[in-house]
Amino acid sequence: MRNLSLLTDLYQLTMGQGYFNENRHEEEVVFDLFFRPNRLITYSVAAGMEQAVDFLENLHFDEEDIAYLRSLGLFTEPFLQYLKELRFTGDVVAVREGEIVFPYEPILSVRAPVIQAQLVETPLLTFINHQTLIASKAAKICSAAGGGVMEFGLRRAQGADAGIYGARAAIIGGCVGTSNVYAGKEFSVPVSGTMAHSWVMNFPTELDAFRAYAECFPNQCMLLVDTYDTLKSGVPNAIRVFRELRQKGYEPVGIRLDSGDLAYLSKEARKMLDEAGFEKCIICASGDLDENSIRSLKTQGARIDTWGVGTKLITSADMPALGGVYKLAAVFENGEEIPKIKLSDTTEKITNPGQKSVYRLYDNASGKAIADLITRLGEEIDTERPLEIFHPVETWKRMTITDFSVRDIRVTWMQGGRRTREALPLTAIRDYFRGEFDRFWEEYTRLDMPHIYKVDLSQALYDLKNEMLCRYGKGKI
Fold it and tell me: Which of 282, 314, 346 is the last residue of a domain?
């Protein structure tokens, strides 16, 4: 495993030197990681916690790291010696991977000595921002497709790690496989892929190329049919080779379309395959697809069974960054929690103070999620009594819920610097996401003009926030 302890911004280390010099480096604090609203964010799918916990568990500065930091001329020898012995000893509470999450919710919280909590800010954001972004994009694409989406984006990813962990996140978000062989091995997920246009072009004829491929892979024969002319050449040649395969006792898998009018071509290709007796052959489509183009193709009646999605998935083309932040929520003095708040003239940038819990409220009759409630840590919700919830800014927007159940969507991942949860297979995380996705009304997850899911503050947290705002001269929200 690579030592990524220097995967941080310099100011994390300079602040660490400052805390050390002030003899405050062992003071205990709590930081929350969350993301703010964005016009493209309706819901997000949490991912990257596994890599974040791996990083924390292996945090250490080796001799080469210390030598490099010494060469910068910024740090004292006592501080460098302190770093040499440093290990993460804190607690981490976070949502499960695959959990559906919303703006302002602390999806991960770190409680640790301040120097530790500060040093890990950048890497935690790196792991979770990226994978949550890609998992969320994959979820929208898979929802539009109705399943059968394969991640094909490695060659367009912003670097190797983005390709590897982007593939991981795409599986969490619902993809059934990836073209990325490294990711397939690393995460034990299905890999898929057949041929490129260059294969077809490297043979004297398209028919020769198809026959050669069928000879190599008689049990897994899927042919790329749009190199020259899809309907006049590609599909007829594929059918000819499929007949030859069947005569040898094999059944072909299908064809792939990568360009042109995919709606028209898929419908015509389906007719040709069916008339030739290959009703079970699938049609796969690829080529700059996303949730919007897939939805359009389905509306047009395209006869596409599976989808290979690359660039716009692996880069989250319409929203290239999640915008997650990591903010101080509390410090401790003599064991007593002192809540902290970040103020701003922009309402959206004012943080929620103190240690918190995040509860999801479900309607018992339907089993569907009603709202999320951020509370002060230790608050309990009595499901036997009606509960009034209200918008955290537009407080006249209120509703009272009855006959409901609650779930704390966060769990303990680390305690005293040691992980408390076993790693899950990626397919199990994907299954968890799918199960939770089904517990949301479609109004919240649809692509066009979705309802805004309610994320409210408990009365106690709302009161604390307003008390602190008034204390600092900002007035109530």
Answer: 314
Q: Which of 176, 6, 188, 179 is nearest to 83 (CA)?
A: 6
Q: What is the mean pLDDT of residues 232-259?
A: 98
Model pLDDT, residue 272: 98
Q: Is residue 4 part of a domain?
A: no
Q: Are residues 233 and 325 in the same domain?
A: no
Instruction: Using alpha carbons, select from 295, 221, 296, 285 the residue that is nearest to residue 259.
Output: 285
Give the pTM. Answer: 0.96
Q: Total structural domains in the chain?
A: 2
Here the CATH number for the domain that contains residue 413 is 3.20.140.10
Q: Give Cα separations from 232 to 226, 227, 235, 236 (angstroms).
A: 10, 11, 7, 7
Domain that holds residue 291: 135-314
Q: How confident is the model at residue 476 (pLDDT cuts 50, 70, 90)?
A: low
CA angle in degrees (0–180, nearest 5) for 351-352-355: 130
Work out the average pLDDT over 158-184: 97
Q: How confident is the model at residue 84 (pLDDT cuts 50, 70, 90)?
A: very high
Q: Do residues 164 and 186 touch, judged by C-beta distance below 8 A? A: yes
pLDDT range class, residue 474, cuts 50, 70, 90: low
Q: In the chain, what percentage of residues exceed pLDDT 90?
A: 94
Query: Distance between CA atoms of 107 and 95, rounded to whole angstroms?
Result: 5
Same domain, 244 and 298: yes
**Do residues 124 and 166 share a domain?**
no
Nearest to 5 by CA among 91, 123, 113: 123
> 35, 49, 164, 155: which is closest to 98 by C-alpha?
49
Q: How far apart are the C-alpha atoms of 139 and 290, rounded to whole Å?
A: 11
